Amino acid sequence: MSAGRIFIFGLGYVGQHLGHALAAQGWHITGTTRRPELLRSQLPSDWDILAFQDDAPMADLSDHLAKATHLITTISAIGGYDPVMRHHAKELAAFDGWAGYVSATSVYPDQKDGFVDESVPAAPATKRGQARLEAENLWLEVCKAEILRVAGIYGPQRNAIRALLDGKARIIEKDGQLSNRIHQSDITSIILAAMAKPRAGRIINLCDDEPAAQGDVVRFAAKLLDVEPPTPVAFEDADLTPMARSFYVSKRKLKSSLVGPELGVNLRYPTYREGLRALLEFEVAKGKS
User: What is the pTM for the complete model shown?
Assistant: First the structure.
């Protein structure tokens, strides 16, 4: 894939990692954040970092998109709507390059038995999932975007080892709860592969190969650190935010029928075990710095 120019709505965790990977290949990066002044000192000086607030349109978007070959958004549906589409549907409709929408696997229904792949129709069980699905449909209609349904994200400074070192790890037990995860490195690899082999309107699950209970992941991280895991708390007794609580509502096991066969991507971290082992040295060193 030859170097191009990408516009990234939302230079957060996913957006920054993707930007760094593309910049290393010679791409020009333009992206948005709520407060550019907070990011400019942290990111390369040749990145164009623009302001975008959820409650107002940004200036001169058409000019920036006219220069872009690729466009991706990592911004969640906020308050039940997609802020990018709400403010900029007209400009997005005029964009004729590759477009991607980073969604979430919360759009899928609960499924007690078997695995959920890209062929399973979306039927979200939560309001958050419904908002995601409505945003997906808009991006499909307006931009023919590729839809990237991402499982639970972890990676550097965002994982169970880091949570244990910071004293913030918890084990919440809910009977039957299982979920998949995906390392940030693998998210970037899959997005790059989708850009290199584009197919408008394609839906891709970004998930690892082993759904697991949340407590199993924390216990494994504790074993790596040679510390005692936190005392488990029953879901019914846990003081959780509505967003955190929704994580435990759904019960599904995910897989992708496209990541390997169509995109040719072999996950670097097919389970949380490989991912956490790789993160161990980094997180311990970071904790001592």
Answer: 0.95
